[in-house]
Amino acid sequence: MTNTSSNAKAGKPPRHLRVLPRYNRRMPAPLSRRLYGPVVLLVAVVVGGTVGYMVLGLSALDALYQTVITVSTVGYRELSDGGVTAGYKIFTVVLILGGTGSVLYGAGVFVENLLEGRLTGEYRRYRMHRHIEELSGHVVICGQGRMGRAIAEYAKSTRQVVVVVDALEDRAEAMGFPFVLGNATHDDVLRQAGIERAAVAIVALGSDADNVYVTLSVRALNAGLFLVARATGEDAIPKLRQAGADRVVDPYEIGGTRMGALAFQPAVTDFLDVVLHDDEYAVRVQELPVPDTSGALGHNLAELSLREQTGAVVLAVRDREGSFHTDDVHTRPFLHGDLLIAIGTDSALNRLGDRLKS
Fold first, then answer.
1. Per-residue pLDDT tens digits for 44-98
2. Which of 40, 60, 64, 161 is buried most deeply by CB count within 10 Å?
3. CATH level 2 (architecture), domain 139-249
């Protein structure tokens, strides 16, 4: 009789995802900030020209008038009552060069920003789409509501490669991941997100009907990926499973369970939160598959002395049927399809993974 602590629903575990650098965007500075320098320069030229002509003998109004027509290259008559002296000519030449340069510089920055708003945006989207086309084994998140944002934040903390699908550009763009604009219920939008090459899809739209429809579409486009779907009602859970979801999450049930755990076992809940979600903590929990070519097959933990050799602690083993083994974890031989749930430091978990592969 198999000794198991729980009988989870059978289902394949998610494959290990490749961890790659996230797509980084460098957004251009706002137009007002970029025009700040040229405007300050032009004001300084006008003020300097006015003061200079006043020193050369013009009144304040005449000095301002002479400066404006000089900087703008209109070229009306000179207003000097004392004649056009050598100093007057030199100052006017300097003012023309400085004023014309500042005006052209400001106009250039303004035109550049008008064009850049479109050209840069189009180029950035082209670059992003090319980046998505090169991805494989990534995560596709459909829906960027409150739950979608929480999922994306968790994915960001684990440095997963994520592509967001959402109909609102501002909402999708705010997460800092590559994104595809459009309705996730359309197959062409899912294809643009690379769903056929993805390892995991998370469907977190606001409507159960949309989630069922997208789950059907995703499963039809990629039968091998691991699919997690959101349900807002109990009636939707079996439908989503029938549609092809490997896991179905009811946020209300999970939220209620978590509130109860915080009320009755706060220390345990806090510890699990730290271990699972806090990157600064030295210890974390990780799942490690036993490769089909591993020398550990047919041997148990006691025989292999994995804890002594690696420093990682194996908490449980999940078999290919989806059952977790905890009571017999040290005496049960490893079999094909086993998945270890272990806790330890990054280095200890890496050593355990290498030991299983050897």
1. 888 888 888 888 878 888 888 888 887 776 666 666 655 567 777 787 777 777 7
2. 161
3. 3-Layer(aba) Sandwich (3.40)
What distance in Å separates the CA atoms of residue 149 and residue 273, rounded to the nearest whole number?
18
CATH class of 282-357: alpha beta
For residue 317, the model assigns a pLDDT of 92
Q: So what's the architecture of 31-133 in CATH?
A: Orthogonal Bundle (1.10)
Segment 232-282, tens digit of pLDDT: 888 899 999 999 999 999 888 888 888 888 888 888 878 777 766 666 667
pTM above 0.70, yes or no: no
**Domain limits, the chain:** 31-133, 139-249, 282-357
